[in-house]
Structure to design on (141 residues):
């Protein structure tokens, strides 16, 4: 059983037959304080490993599945990013909100170029991508 939003329907597969649940398992070994948004880094812990990981994770999963990245306005000028691909909505980092219920309707599409205009965000994405590649190449599931 998974706790991320959309896990029950996250049955799309990539070219290797992996679902978003499979990537959640692998990313659980990749998320770290260095891939967390700097403003949230002091609160990041292995127990709340998805904290501050939304945009870099969503764009990485977009690389894998295609589709679009959308953002839920958080009311503080920031957005929480999630994926929609092949009609499948999933949010691998939703657990960071604990019991808070997010509204996934009528959300704005997020532009990769706008997000990656921030050097620190692009660097965090590249680090997460490298860490995931290492996990994928390790042969461990």
């Amino acid at each position: 059983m998974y706790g991320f939003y959309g896990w029950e329907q996250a049955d799309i597969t990539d070219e290797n037959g992996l679902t978003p649940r499979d990537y959640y398992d692998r990313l659980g070994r990749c998320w770290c304080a260095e891939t967390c948004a700097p403003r949230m880094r002091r609160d990041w812990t292995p127990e709340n490993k998805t904290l501050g990981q939304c945009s870099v994770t969503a764009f990485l999963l977009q690389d894998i599945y295609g589709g679009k990245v959308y953002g839920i306005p958080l009311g503080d000028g920031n957005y929480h990013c999630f994926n929609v691909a092949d009609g499948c909505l999933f949010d691998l980092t939703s657990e960071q909100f604990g019991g808070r219920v997010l509204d996934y309707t009528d959300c704005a599409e997020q532009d990769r170029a706008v997000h990656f205009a921030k050097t620190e965000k692009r660097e965090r994405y590249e680090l997460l991508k490298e860490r995931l590649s290492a996990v994928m190449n390790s042969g461990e599931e």
